[in-house]
């Protein structure tokens, strides 16, 4: 007697619906982890360390990961680098109160999210704000040589509400769980789940409108 086939998971549409905009979005968002230079390292067994982790160690291994995270949130390389620099400065100031490497990385993620929010607020209130130069804006997608289809979805992230973009970037680029996203954004787990669902649907609408 053959075993019954499990139903497809909600966020992994089957092949019959592969052409639907939501399916394109889900498939594309699933590739965002390839933009994350530290994602693979964070999911491998830790190698023995000759001593305790230092801020310099984290800066070398996680700076680019955090810069790319910030780029996806603020669409501007220079602003992203400023956000990350401030996040590491805050890490230095709070180093004594952090338990371990995981806590330090969590602190950095939260600082980058909050710093990006502050950056976007300042842009909205600055009378003479000049939009990012096209040569540096939305440059995260070029780092992984994505297909045209994938570039369209990553670019569309910039047109989402900031909170929706944060949740999708942390989920797909950062590979975080709902609980970890909640910790980084200050949202409840239920709000994270509903925000992700609405954001994916919104991106699907955008792709549909372009087709």
TrEMBL record:
Compositional bias (Pro residues): 1-10
SUPFAM superfamilies registered for this protein in UniProt: Sigma2 domain of RNA polymerase sigma factors (SSF88946), Sigma3 and sigma4 domains of RNA polymerase sigma factors (SSF88659)
GO BP terms, alphabetized: DNA-templated transcription initiation
The entry's keywords: DNA-binding, Sigma factor, Transcription, Transcription regulation
HTH luxR-type domain sequence ranges: 157-210
Basic and acidic residues compositional bias, start-end: 11-20
GO molecular function, one term: sigma factor activity
Region Disordered, residue ranges: 1-23
InterPro entries cross-referenced by the UniProt entry: RNA_pol_sigma-70-like, RNA_pol_sigma-70_dom, RNA_pol_sigma-E_actinobac, RNA_pol_sigma70_r2, RNA_pol_sigma70_r4_t2, RNA_pol_sigma_r2, RNA_pol_sigma_r3/r4-like, Tscrpt_reg_LuxR_C
CDD domains, sorted: Sigma70_r4
Record-stated family: Belongs to the sigma-70 factor family. ECF subfamily.
Name listed for the protein in its UniProt record: SigE family RNA polymerase sigma factor
Organism this protein belongs to: Nakamurella flava
């Amino acid at each position: 007697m053959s075993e019954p086939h499990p139903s497809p998971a909600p966020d992994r549409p089957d092949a019959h619906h592969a052409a639907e905009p939501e399916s394109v979005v889900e498939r594309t968002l699933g590739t965002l982890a390839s933009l994350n230079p530290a994602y693979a390292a964070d999911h491998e067994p830790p190698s023995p360390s000759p001593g305790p982790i230092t801020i310099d160690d984290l800066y070398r291994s996680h700076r680019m990961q955090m810069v790319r995270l910030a780029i996806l949130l603020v669409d501007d390389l220079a602003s992203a680098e400023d956000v990350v620099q401030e996040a590491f400065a805050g890490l230095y100031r709070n180093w004594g109160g952090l338990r371990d490497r995981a806590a330090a990385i969590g602190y950095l993620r939260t600082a980058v999210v909050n710093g990006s929010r502050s950056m976007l607020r300042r842009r909205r209130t600055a009378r003479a704000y000049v939009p990012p130069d096209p040569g540096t804006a939305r440059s995260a997608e070029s780092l992984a040589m994505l297909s045209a289809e994938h570039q369209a979805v990553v670019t569309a992230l910039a047109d989402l509400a900031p909170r929706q973009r944060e949740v999708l970037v942390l989920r797909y680029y950062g590979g975080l769980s709902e609980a970890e996203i909640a910790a980084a954004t200050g949202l409840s787990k239920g709000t994270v789940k509903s925000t992700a669902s609405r954001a994916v649907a919104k991106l699907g609408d955008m792709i549909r409108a372009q087709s």
